[in-house]
C-alpha cells in the first residue's frame, strides 16, 4: 500500500448542505452560476443577508452570503477582484447576488478569480425573496443536524449498552464497524493494539500509520485528520478519559469520512473510553492479586512448589517446566503527575502483551517500576540463545521511540527446573539488570552468566574501599578526565585481552609494532612490571573491571 499521506482539513462538527444542493431547492429556480463551479460541493452551514459595503467583519465561515449589487458599487475593477478573494479567504461557502438594480454584471477579472479559487458566485433572480432562501436552506440544515444528532445518540446508546451489558473493547469495535467503518482498531497511548474488528491484515504493520513492530505511531499521526491511502480513507480520533488521553480509535473505510460522521466518531470514542476505563479497573484488581501472589512466590513465601505451580495454573501460568526469570527495571517517574502515574501499568501491560505472544503461559506481574516475567525456555538453550530471545522481546516493548514507552534494562536469570530455586533466580535477574545498567547503559539486556567477575565486584558494599583499590592499582590510569590516560587504558585492556601478545595487539589497535612496544614500556613505568608479574597483572585486570563497573 502506498503510504503517501493525503491529508484533508479536520472534520468540522457542523452539519450543512452543499452549494449544489442549495441550487436544487425550489426557491432557487432561475439562479445562474456565474463562476466558481468547481466549488459547488462547498458546505453551507448558514445563510446571511447583508447589503452594506463593508461586510467582511460580519461574515462567518461556511456561510452563503445573500446580497444585492448595492455593496458592489463601491468596489470597481481590481477592488471587486480583491473583494471576491477576501470573501473566499474568510471561508464563505459562496455569494449569491441580485444583479440589475445596482450592478448589471461582474467584471471578467473578478469572475476569473472566483473560478481560480473555486469560489461559487451565483446570480439569483431579482424578484426572489431572501427570506424564502433563508427558510428553505436553514430547514434542510436543521433537519440534517437533527438527523445527525439522532444517529449519534443511537450509536452512543448501542455502544454504551454493549459495555454495560458486559461487553469488552473488541465488541465496542464491532459496534463501530456496524455503524461507521469497515475496520476499527483501538490502541493504547503508546500505539499497542488493544482491540479490533473488521478485516485486519495478518501483519498490523501493513496498515497506514503503523511501524514495522505493529505499533501505531501515536506521536506523529494527527488525531481528527482524515487521510487517504490508495483509495482507503483513515480517520484517527482521541479516546479521552477524565484526566488524560487513554488511546486512539483508528477507522478505515472505502469512502471519505464526512462532517456528519464526526459526531458519531465522538460517541464511539466515549464508548471506547468507558470500555477501557472498565477494563483498567478490572485489570487493576486482578493485577494486584496476581502481583501479590507472584511476589510471594519470588520471595519463597507462597508455599511449597506444588502449591505454587497449582495456583499459578489457575491464573493461566505454566510453571511446571524449565523457566528463566526476567526482570525489566524502568527509571523512576514523578509521582505527582497524573499522566506519568499511569506509566508503570502501561509498562506492565506492554510486557504482558509481548510475553504472551512469545509464550502464552508466561507469568507476568508488575511491581512499581519493575516488571517480572517467568518465561518458559528449553532446558538445553544456552545463555546466548535466551539473551537474544529476550532482547527481541525488549525491543518490541521499547518500540521505535516515543509514545509513552519506558527506558529500562532487562536482567535474565539462569534457567531453573525446580520452583524452590525461584527466589535465587529472581535475585540473579535483578543483579543482572543492575550490573547491566552500570556496564552497558539504560537499554541493556544482560544474562546473569554473562556477568563474570562483575558478579563478585557488584557485591562489594564498601564502594570507597573499591575506589581506593582502583586508584592504588591503576595510579594515573584511574583518572576519569584525561584523554591520554583513556588512550593508555584502551591499549592496556586490548593487550591483556590478547594475553600480552604484542603482534596481535598491534594489529587489533592498528599500531606499528615499535609504537606498541613504546606504550608497553610507558605502562610498566606507571604500573610496574605487569608483563612478568602475574599477580600484578591479575590485580590490574581486576581494577580495570572494577573501574568499568563504577564508570560504565
Description:
This protein is of the alpha+beta class. It has 16 helices and 18 strands. It has helices at 19-23, 78-89, 108-117, 130-164, 169-179, 259-298, 305-314, 343-358, 383-398, 422-440, 454-457, 463-474, 483-497, 502-509, 513-527, 534-551, and strands spanning 6-7, 17-18, 32-35, 43-44, 46-49, 63-68, 94-98, 121-124, 183-187, 193-197, 226-229, 232-240, 245-253, 323-330, 363-367, 370-376, 408-412, 445-447. Strands 1-11-12-13-9-10 form a six-stranded antiparallel β-sheet. It has a five-stranded mixed β-sheet with strand order 3-8-7-6-5. The chain has a five-stranded mixed β-sheet with strand order 15-16-14-17-18. α4 (130-164) runs antiparallel to α5, α4 runs parallel beside α6 and α8 (343-358) crosses α9 (383-398). It is elongated. The two termini are 45 Å apart. The model is unreliable at 1-14 (pLDDT under 50).
Provide the low-confidence segments as ranges. Answer: 1-14
The global form is elongated
Cα distance spanning the termini: 45 Å
The helix/strand class is: alpha+beta
Mean pLDDT: 81
Instruction: Estimate the helix proportion, in percent.
Output: 40-55%
Number of helices: 16
In terms of DSSP E residues, the strand content is 15-25%
Number of strand segments: 18
- What does the largest sheet look like? 6 strands, antiparallel
- Rg of Cα set: 35 Å
The strand order across the widest sheet is 1-11-12-13-9-10
Amino acid at each position: 500500500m502506498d503510504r503517501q499521506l493525503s491529508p484533508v482539513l479536520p472534520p468540522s462538527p457542523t452539519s450543512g448542505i452543499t452549494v449544489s444542493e442549495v441550487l436544487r431547492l425550489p426557491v432557487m429556480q432561475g439562479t445562474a452560476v456565474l463562476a466558481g463551479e468547481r466549488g459547488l460541493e462547498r458546505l453551507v452551514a448558514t445563510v446571511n443577508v447583508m447589503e452594506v459595503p463593508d461586510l467582511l467583519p460580519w461574515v462567518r465561515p461556511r456561510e452563503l452570503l445573500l446580497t444585492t449589487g448595492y455593496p458592489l458599487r463601491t468596489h470597481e475593477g481590481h477592488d471587486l477582484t480583491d473583494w471576491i478573494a477576501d470573501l473566499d479567504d474568510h471561508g464563505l461557502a459562496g455569494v449569491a447576488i441580485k444583479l440589475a438594480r445596482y450592478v448589471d454584471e461582474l467584471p471578467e477579472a473578478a469572475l476569473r478569480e472566483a473560478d481560480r479559487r473555486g469560489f461559487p458566485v451565483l446570480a439569483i433572480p431579482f424578484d426572489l425573496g431572501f427570506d424564502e432562501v433563508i427558510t428553505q436552506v436553514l430547514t434542510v440544515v436543521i433537519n440534517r443536524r437533527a438527523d445527525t444528532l439522532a444517529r449519534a445518540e443511537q450509536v452512543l446508546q448501542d455502544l454504551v449498552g454493549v459495555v454495560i451489558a458486559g461487553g469488552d473493547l473488541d465488541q465496542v469495535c464491532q459496534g463501530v464497524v456496524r455503524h461507521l467503518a469497515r475496520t476499527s482498531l483501538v490502541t493504547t497511548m503508546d500505539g499497542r493494539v488493544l482491540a479490533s474488528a473488521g478485516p485486519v491484515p495478518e501483519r498490523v504493520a501493513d496498515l497506514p500509520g503503523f511501524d514495522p513492530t505493529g505499533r501505531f505511531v501515536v506521536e506523529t499521526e494527527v488525531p481528527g485528520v482524515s487521510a487517504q491511502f490508495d483509495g482507503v480513507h483513515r480517520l484517527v480520533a482521541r479516546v479521552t478519559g477524565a484526566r488524560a488521553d487513554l488511546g486512539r480509535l483508528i477507522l478505515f473505510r472505502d469512502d471519505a469520512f464526512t462532517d456528519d460522521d464526526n459526531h458519531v466518531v465522538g460517541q464511539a470514542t466515549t464508548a471506547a473510553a468507558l470500555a477501557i476505563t472498565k477494563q483498567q479497573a478490572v485489570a487493576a484488581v486482578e493485577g494486584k492479586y496476581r502481583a501479590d501472589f507472584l511476589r510471594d512466590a519470588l520471595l519463597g513465601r507462597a508455599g511449597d512448589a506444588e502449591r505454587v505451580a497449582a495456583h499459578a495454573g489457575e491464573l493461566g501460568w505454566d510453571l511446571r517446566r524449565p523457566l528463566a526469570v526476567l526482570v525489566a527495571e524502568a527509571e523512576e517517574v514523578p509521582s505527582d503527575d497524573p499522566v506519568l502515574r499511569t506509566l508503570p501499568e502501561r509498562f506492565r501491560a506492554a510486557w504482558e502483551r509481548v510475553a504472551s505472544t512469545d509464550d502464552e503461559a508466561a507469568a507476568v506481574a508488575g511491581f512499581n517500576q519493575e516488571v517480572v516475567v517467568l518465561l518458559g525456555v528449553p532446558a538445553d538453550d544456552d545463555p546466548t540463545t535466551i539473551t537474544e530471545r529476550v532482547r527481541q522481546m525488549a525491543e518490541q516493548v521499547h518500540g521505535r521511540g516515543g509514545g509513552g514507552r519506558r527506558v529500562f534494562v532487562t536482567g535474565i536469570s539462569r534457567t531453573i527446573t525446580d520452583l524452590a530455586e525461584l527466589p535465587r533466580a529472581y535475585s540473579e535477574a535483578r543483579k543482572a539488570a543492575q550490573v547491566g545498567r552500570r556496564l552497558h547503559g539504560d537499554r541493556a539486556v544482560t544474562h546473569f552468566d554473562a556477568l563474570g567477575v562483575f558478579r563478585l565486584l557488584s557485591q562489594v558494599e564498601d564502594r570507597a574501599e573499591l575506589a581506593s583499590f582502583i586508584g592504588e592499582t591503576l595510579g594515573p590510569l584511574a583518572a576519569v578526565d584525561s584523554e591520554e590516560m583513556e588512550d593508555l587504558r584502551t591499549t592496556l585492556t586490548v593487550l591483556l585481552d590478547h594475553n600480552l601478545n604484542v603482534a596481535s595487539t598491534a594489529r587489533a589497535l592498528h599500531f606499528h609494532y615499535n609504537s606498541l612496544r613504546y606504550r608497553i614500556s610507558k605502562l610498566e613505568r606507571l604500573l610496574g612490571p605487569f608483563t612478568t608479574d602475574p599477580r600484578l597483572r591479575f590485580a590490574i585486570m581486576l581494577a580495570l573491571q572494577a573501574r568499568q563497573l563504577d564508570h560504565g
